[in-house]
Amino acid sequence: MRRWSDWVPVLAVVALVLSWGRTLPGAAVAVVAVFLAGAVLAAVHHAEVVAHRVGEPFGSLVLAVAVTVIEVALIVTLMVDGGPKGATLARDTVFAAVMITCNGIVGLSLLAAALRRRLAVFNAEGSGAALATVATLATLSLVLPTFTTSRPGPEFSTGQLAFAAVSSLALYALFVAMQTVRHREHFLPVAGEGQQAADRAEAEEGHAGVPSRSAAAASLALLVVSLVAVVGDAKAVSPTIESAVASAGLPQAVVGIVIALLVLLPEALAAVRAARRGRVQQSLNLALGSAMASIGLTIPVIAVATVWLDGPLVLGLTATHMVLLALTVVTGALTVVPGRATLLQGGVHLSILAAFVFLAISP
């Protein structure tokens, strides 16, 4: 274990163990934050090794599912510890993840690719199907609770929550089957000049050789360790984040945004690096796959967790958030239909993310 990417995750886990369940002073929070950043960079490195070994779209799926599974564990843990404030935590974190992935990661990826090669080229069939699935999952799980009448407020009844959980899981499983088996070709990078340039760049950087099975297995294990460290260290610094948010007089929803940003950093960095190499489809697979997994895996787990969790579970979005979600879906559809994008589309998506963050801070 001579490379930094091998030993940094281990040290980050050690920092997690030493800080778990304790109130940290400012200096300790800074140290944990440093290890958190190191674990993020290590996760990106190991995710790229695994993705290079298994190929697309499996590589993107591995990182998206791994991050989401641990994100779900973080949400449940914070809901248990959060008391009444945990009622909206799942909604705030999941919606923040959707906005960050569908606007932030997509926008940055399109910008990175367009700046490098003038046009970002990708497969419209696969990206369009992924966006449609995200829009359906978000509407069924986050929009409908605002309009149902079985319970007062933006909440599902027990039966409605069970239906949303089962349908979310089934829809996500169907998409994964299409992505990896039946229509895998729709989620592969588009062949052509951009792909050839990407292959040349990859060869120049020394990654052209496919990693061995043992190297990929080691990277997969270290990827899981890195992601555990990212989420655990994020939880360790979350009390500081919450106190800072409260001291600044900001809404509680800002906490969910910060947590989502921390957890999604590995995917964001991996997506931008892939886009710079001309692999825009891989970037979109990561972004939209993560948004889909955030809903399709989180809602079923939260539904099961309500068996022992006390208090209400608020899933319904506010009117402002529904407008932003509708704008994201419409803009995303117009972006993916042509199968190519310019700097303008990237800037439009990033402006929607900026509006989401600003309105969260100043509702």
UniProtKB/TrEMBL annotation:
Q: Which residue numbers delimit the Sodium/calcium exchanger membrane region domain? A: 29-180, 219-361
The principal location of this protein is: membrane
Q: Where in the cell is it found?
A: Membrane
Q: How does it sit in the membrane?
A: Multi-pass membrane protein
InterPro entries according to UniProt = Alkaline_pH_Ca-Antiporter (IPR052946), NaCa_Exmemb (IPR004837)
Residue intervals passing through the bilayer: 31-51, 58-79, 94-115, 127-147, 159-178, 215-232, 252-272, 284-308, 314-336, 343-361
Which keywords belong to this entry?
Membrane, Transmembrane, Transmembrane helix
Q: What is this protein called?
A: Ionic transporter y4hA
**Species the sequence originates in:** Streptomyces sanyensis
